[in-house]
Every structure is written in C-alpha cells, then in structure tokens.
C-alpha cells in the first residue's frame, strides 16, 4: 500500500504541474503546440532525452537483456547515443531553421512545401499515425505491468492471483487507465509547455532514481560489503550465453544499427525541435545526449542479465505471462524493484519507471493532436480555423487517441521490446526521405512517393512474415551461395526505400526552380 500512495502522490504532482503550466498559456495555437519557440538549451536537452527514453529503453531493454543477453546494449544503446545526436545536429537544426522561417508545426507541412505536393500529406499522415500508435502501446502496456507488480499485495481480496509476484496488485487495465488519465490531463491543459516541463521533471526523476535502483538491487542480490564487489560477483555468475552476443550473428547485430535512425522521422521529436529558442539551444543536447543514454541503459541491461543468474531468490518466482509458464520479460524490472527494495523506496523507484514511460507518451499524444488539427482539419478548410478553434481541435483529437490507445492496450502483448522494434523499423525506413529532402536538390516528388510506398510495402511484407510480431527472433535471411546472412528486417526495408527514392528521382522531372531557391538559397 505504501508504494501505491507514493505513486498516487507523484501522479498528482504531475497533474498540478500541467495545471500550473496552463496558467501561462497565451491562448494561441503556436503557444499550445510549440510553446512559442521559447525552450532553452537545458529544457530542450531534458525534454528531448525524456521523449526518446521510453518504456522500450527501461522495461523493454531489461526484459530483452534477460532473454537475449548483454548484446542488447551493443544493439541499441551504443549506436543510439551517436546516431541520435547526429540526427539532432544534421536534421534538427536545419528543420528548426526552416520551421521558424516558414511557420511549420508538423512534418507534413514541411514535406508538402518541399515536394510541391499537397497529396503527400494524405499519404504520410496515416503512415505516421499508424507507426506512432504501436509506440504508444509500448508505453501504456508497460505502465500497466509496472503498476501491477509494484502494488502487489495491496488488495489481496479484491485482485487475487495464483502468481504471488502480482497477487493483490492493481490489474493492468486499471493501472493503464490511471496513467492515460494523468498524461491526458497535463497535456490537455498544459500543451507543449506543460509537456516540456513534465518531461524535464520526469527525466530528472527517472535518472536519479534509476541510479539508486541499480545500487540497491546490486547490493541486495550480491550480498557483499560494497557495490563494486557485488557487481563483480553478479557479473561473474551470468551464464556465458548471456554474457556475450554469441547468440546473435554479426550481420544480425550490425543491421540493428539502422533502427536508431528512426529518431529522424519521429513526428513528436520534430515538434520538440521546433520549440527551441535558437539554433544555439541544440549544442547541449548534441553533446550530452550520448552520456545520458549510457547512464540509463547500462544499469537496465545489467539488471536484466543479473536476473538470469543463480543468485536470484527463488521465492517469490519471477512473474509469468498470464495463462502460461513463460517468464514475462516486461515484468523483470518492476518485479526486482518490488522484491529487492523497501516499500517506501520501491514506491519512489516505481514512480521513476513510470516517469520514463510518461515522458514519451505525452509528446506523442500532443503531436498526433497537432497533426490532425494542422494537416487535416485546418489544411482542407476554405477559411483557416481561428487559433482557439485549432487548440480545441487539437485537444479533442488528443482525447480520442488516448481512448483508442487505451482500448488497444487491453490486448495481451508479450514483448514490449519487439513491439517497439517494429514501430522504430517503420520510422527508420523513412529516414532517407527526410535526409534527401534537406540535403539533395535532386529529390523529386515522384522519388519521394516511390521511397515511401516501397518502405511501407516492404514493412508490411516483413511484419506479416514475422507472424505480425509474434516471432520474436524473426530475421530477414539473405542466401549467397552456401552462406546464409541473418539481418534485422529494418535493413532491407531501409535500403529498398533509399534505392527507390534515388532511382525514381534520377529519371523523373526535376523539382521546380522556385522550390529549390526556397530550400537551398545558398546554391540558387
């Protein structure tokens, strides 16, 4: 019950933060959607990092490390640290300049202008929304898992279960509803300013509490006199197949490097880039982001592989996927927090995990509302909506997408990590489009359509081949002679999209000269 009280107090604090941010709301569309371009370096760093560090990074990475071993860090974290910063530098600053100059709020606005095609919005809008929804599900499903594990024992008569790890805990459908409700309130009232403040606050919370969690769990599992000795003891006990990336082929490992390129096409990150006060504001995020990633990912991965050792207590047993005898990898982190720390500290640590989850949910909900209001409703009206009407439309769509996400999250998804990888693979496959739009004068409208359609067709083909994500270790196998090269599906999707974009652009009419002067004035 102590954990539940701490979690409720934390959620109430977030609601108050959103309500306070709403007192500074000027009433304009730009203020609600972009915080009037007022975000400085520190707040930009914290909000960008909080947005990219999701349940996928905490709950998902710990669970995947439990399943696949320490190689998960090399798969995602090391490459993400470099590629994310590269995207901030190469894409973020340039898009911020264009957004400030031409008044963009969404990606679709930029691509419509850059390609001189109104219909590109009708193609991109459903694709972007369709890829964000699984990303949202990652966060919402994880929040339900965390709430149930952390409140186990609070209501033994009301929520009985044969699994002692979750017996008496708040069921996921209630926990997910609580998280969706809190995020909805502070996004609805606070807009981008409330979201940026909440992200910064939550990033600080989950980074500090994450380090505390790591130290407490290491000391409890190791049982030695100091942290270093415990880390050495636990690491020495890790089974060989979990201590290396031996279970992954080289091509499988290196083709994972395509996944972090997804950051370049996240619509919510595009919106955060536009909130910057100046181009100078990007310096701190570019430098500090890789360091922050290391601080968060290393403890998560180590905790995941430590859970595979014989040093883990046998009682209570690890929580299982409902209706099966399979260990639920999504529940590893909250389970260890619950069983290896005190009730009060466990409550704070659970709040830290939920902070990481909510810091990405809020940005995604807000960006979808902004896209619907700007790219669909306002764009296709003869007379533009007033600022007040656009804010109303944005808020109404946010309510709708929160409700839809909650209903979809009630399905039983076994792997948060796997669901996230498929969502990120889709965004990664669109990276060639945004990069070419910013740096290649030869990109044509037809080339852009070819790249997008190729990406989505390849993604659908590979997703279906993986039994719609059910095959966790699915790979794209390339046979050359007697050798079989296993690759992550994102690699062929990314490369096919890039080839289609380039080839079609080379054989179709060049872009209008006025468009080139607008986007490449230095070479006009």
Automatic annotation (TrEMBL):
Keywords: Cell membrane, Ion transport, Membrane, Sodium, Sodium transport, Symport, Transmembrane, Transmembrane helix, Transport. GO terms for cellular component: plasma membrane. It is found in: Cell membrane. Gene3D superfamilies: Sodium/glucose cotransporter. Its main location: membrane. It catalyses: L-proline(in) + Na(+)(in) = L-proline(out) + Na(+)(out). The chain crosses the membrane at residues 6-26, 38-59, 71-93, 122-150, 170-189, 196-219, 253-274, 286-307, 343-368, 389-409, 421-440, 447-464, 490-508. InterPro entries: Na/Glc_symporter_sf (IPR038377), Na/solute_symporter (IPR001734), Sodium:Solute_Symporter (IPR050277). PANTHER family: SODIUM/PROLINE SYMPORTER-RELATED, SODIUM_PROLINE SYMPORTER. Belongs to the sodium:solute symporter (SSF) (TC 2.A.21) family. This is Sodium/proline symporter. It comes from Posidoniimonas polymericola.
